[in-house]
Amino acid sequence: MIRFFTQFRGKYNSMKKSVLILMAGLSLLSLASCSKKDDDDDANALKIALVTDSGTLNDHNFNETSWNAVNDWAIENGGGTKNSNNVVTGGTIETKYYQPSAVNGDFTTAQRVSAIDSAVEWGAKFVVLPGYLFQPVVKKVQAKYPNVSFLALDCVAQDSDDNYAEYTLNDNVAMTQYHEEQAGWFAGYGAVKDGLTKLGFVGGMAVPAVKRYGFGYIQGAEAAAKEMGLDDNAVSMEYYYAGKFDATQEATDFATQWYASGTETIFACGGAVYNSVTTALSTSGKNASWIGVDTNQHADTSIPNKMNEKILTSATKGLAASIKSALTEWNTHDHKLDAKYAGKTLNLGIEDDAVGLATPENSGDSGCWNFKKWTIADYNAAVTKMKKGEITVSSDVENLPTTTKVKVSTHNK
Description:
- About 40% of the residues lie in helices and about 20% in strands.
- α2 runs parallel beside α9.
- It is an alpha/beta fold.
- The N terminus is likely disordered.
- It has a seven-stranded mixed beta sheet with strand order 16-14-13-12-10-11-17, with helices on both faces. Strands 4-1-5-6-9-15 form a six-stranded parallel beta sheet, sandwiched between helices.
């Protein structure tokens, strides 16, 4: 027995020594990997970062469009190439993105600030913040990092963590808002003008931008129905917010029920929530469609089951143009925001050609327009009228639009 334990102890000590040697080797390898990663960063390169608010970067929508704009601008102005990590290196401008960590499944202001801390520690001099949830974050970081410029999209200077108390923007911050209600109006108007009378809307979170799209969609459908002389309640619309910028089972279930009951198109509005709609459509067996948002989603061939080909249209806003324009102005003014942007909130709409529907002409995608009766000429005529003020759309996000021709059934508690 004593001999057995002596042999065991000897083998144990030998194993322990081997493990320690292996761990030391792995530590050295880890340090070498970190060093290599640091070596990939050019200390002299201008660094541009993007931080997401809660959704994933690769949402085929808002975040991804914003990130692609950052990368494209970096390549266009600094050379370099986009590597396998989807960041630009090798030129005079480098890019990197950061995603906050969730706490018990939730993304908080503190976690978003922490992600920005990491971006600044990396060396970012310009940080793009796409999403309404950055409103309270900007209040915290603008003074903390006075030598870093921030572009916050879909934001206004109100602290949503403090009962939407207004605050003053510093000169190192610019915010942009869009008249999404105008883009939504065209989508609803075109759908009804095309002969559709059973509509749906699945939003992500019920934030102002999503609500503006949705309420505009209702107003556009109502306007078309009135012009066409349809009876009261001739158009029906199912209306729901998923509560996330992602697919949820409840959103998929609602969309599945709606398509099964005859809904002809659903406006999928808010990050990756479109996955719930396209999943429902792909299994419905119906000759129905869906409407994309923010960017021309027909061009996204990675959407499963070729559901991009089932797009009726996409209600878009000029995210990429806004980001590139701000970066260009900042870059030509000694890496400071100029008078157009510094401490300002820009409100961009149809007059700025910043919102609307994707067409072959403005997107370069011949398959993005799938209305059968309502033509691009009809759309352009409506755009002209809206620019002249002959068509007005309410931007109110507190009250569901009043309608007589469109019966809206809401599905949120």
